[in-house]
Amino acid sequence: MASTTTLNGKTLVLVDVGNLFFPCRDRGSFIDFEKFLVLLCEDRSRIYKAIAFSAYRHRSNGNDDGKQWFFKRLGKQGFEVVSKKVKKLPDGTEKGNCDVEIAIEACRAVYCVEKVVLVTGDGDFIPLVKYLQEYGIRVDVWFFKSVTDNNLIKIADCFYNLEEYLEAIKL
């Protein structure tokens, strides 16, 4: 396929907040996303976009479990926020991931960036990583190694184990 036409050193940061929350909580830590963004891309002028993706539950009483406050905070810390409501399926289970939205944002940027930083451990993103690499885009994956798909680790240009950085970026 074609290679990247714009060699501008720009980086697209895509954070799967829903995938990140539970491993952090299980470790008794929550992330300071402003510090995290600096860790992901030290030179903020190099950031093309930093986008945080999250689903939320809408309760009939209007309670959103603090998500709107959290989304506003992410915005103040340098992230665009893409959110969507959790869907209740006919069998009563809930589905609320933003995988498609993450993939669309990455594909939109193929001619605008040299690197994509993907914060997820989800192996469903392996085809996306391959696609971006076909366009000459470097893909760095950041997540907890213990809960990251091994094939995602192997295919990434560089894998960073968040376990090693958690102390520096926690609230």
Structural features:
171 residues, alpha/beta, 6-stranded parallel sheet, two-stranded antiparallel sheet, 7 helices, disordered N terminus
State the end-to-end CA separation.
42 Å
Structural class determined from secondary elements: alpha/beta
Task: Name the helicity range.
Answer: 25-40%
Strand order of the largest sheet: 3-2-1-6-7-8
Strand content: 15-25%
Count every beta strand, where a strand is a DSSP E run of 2 or more residues.
Answer: 8
**Number of helical segments with 4 or more residues:** 7
Round the Cα radius of gyration to an integer and report it.
16 Å
* Element pattern in H and E: EHHEHEEEHEHEHEH
Low-confidence blocks of residues: 1-6
Please characterize this protein's 3D structure.
The protein has helices spanning 17-26, 33-40, 67-76, 99-108, 126-134, 150-155, 166-169; strands spanning 11-16, 47-56, 80-85, 87-88, 94-95, 115-119, 138-143, 158-161. With 171 residues, it is α/β, with parallel strands linked by helices. The longest helix is centred in the N-terminal third of the chain and has 10 residues, at 17-26. The radius of gyration is 16 Å and the shape is globular. It starts with 10 loop residues before the first strand and ends with a helix. Strands 3-2-1-6-7-8 form a 6-stranded parallel β-sheet, sandwiched between helices. Strands 4-5 form a two-stranded antiparallel sheet.
